[in-house]
Each structure stands twice: as C-alpha cells, then as structure tokens.
Design a protein that fits this description.
- The protein has a single domain, classed as YqgF/RNase H-like domain (Nucleotidyltransferase, domain 5), CATH 3.30.420.140.
- About 40% of the residues lie in helices and about 20% in strands.
- It is built from 4 helices and 5 strands.
- The protein has a 5-stranded mixed sheet with strand order 3-2-1-4-5, sandwiched between helices.
- Strand 2 and strand 3 form a beta hairpin.
- Helix 1 packs across helix 2.
Length: about 150
C-alpha cells in the first residue's frame, strides 16, 4: 500500500445525501482505521457547509474525501453531478484553509454498510438508519486509503 496519504492526516470522509450527510474521520498517523464521526442533517447548502467548516477547524483536517457515485460504466450519476457541485462549493468555502479536497467512488458503499451492520454485534445485527451514513463514509475512507 502506498502511504503518501499519511502526511495528509487527519482525514475527513463525507457520504453526501440530500437529507443526511455522514462523516468519518481518520486521525491517527499510524493506523488505517477510519471511525464513523457525525451525521449532519442536510437542511440547506449554507448550513451544511458551515457545519463542515467547523468540523474541519476543530479536527484540524488536512484532507477531505467525498464519496461520489458512478454507474457501472464509470459515468457519473445524477446524484454524482449534485455532489460535484457540492464539492465545488466546499472548495470555495474552504479556500482559506490549507486543505486538499478529493473524491472517491462510493458505488455500493451503503449496501456494504448495511451488510456490515447485519453481521456486527456493534449494531445488534441490525441496520441502524441513523448510523448508516457515517459507516458508509468510513467505508469510503477505507477504500480511498486502500487505493492510495
């Protein structure tokens, strides 16, 4: 595994949704185990960007990885286009921060999160809708790390 991403820690991953946004964080510079962080109600673009900005400052984030869905042929979905605009807005909001923002294919991460929940005592072997977005964000970050 390439460890070039280690110098860009802490990392925040975002699983963007029109209702809820899941986040996961990776702080430790020696481990590659992202932790589900916080679910944010996506009430408006400004509210979401302001809340994320506060997290970025509080946690001293250096890298943001935003999940973006693709079709099986690699093309962006309609949701992917919405997320692309969100990424552009986030970059504009965070211009003053020394921050790298990138995207990561999130295809099937929610499905993977559901499967993990159903097979984990941590989630009582059930799908917890309030935690699924953050677990999906952690999976996005795991995949980013494995490909870095």
């Amino acid at each position: 595994m390439n460890t070039g991403h280690r110098s860009l820690r802490p990392i925040l991953a975002i699983d963007y949704g029109t209702k809820y946004v899941g986040t996961a964080i990776l702080i430790d510079s020696h481990l590659d185990f992202p932790t589900p962080y916080m679910r944010i109600d996506n009430q408006s673009r400004n509210q979401l960007l302001n809340q994320l900005y506060k997290i970025l400052l509080k946690e001293k984030i250096k890298l943001v990885v935003v999940g973006i869905p693709h079709l099986l042929d690699g093309q962006k979905t309609d949701m992917g286009k919405i997320i692309g605009r969100f990424i552009a807005d986030l970059k504009t909001k965070c211009t003053a921060l020394e921050l790298t923002i990138t995207d990561q294919d999130e295809t099937l991460t929610s499905f993977e999160a559901e499967n993990r929940m159903k097979s984990s005592a941590l989630y009582n072997f059930r799908i917890d809708k309030k935690k699924i977005d953050c677990l999906a964000a952690a999976i996005i970050l795991e995949e980013f790390i494995s490909l870095s």
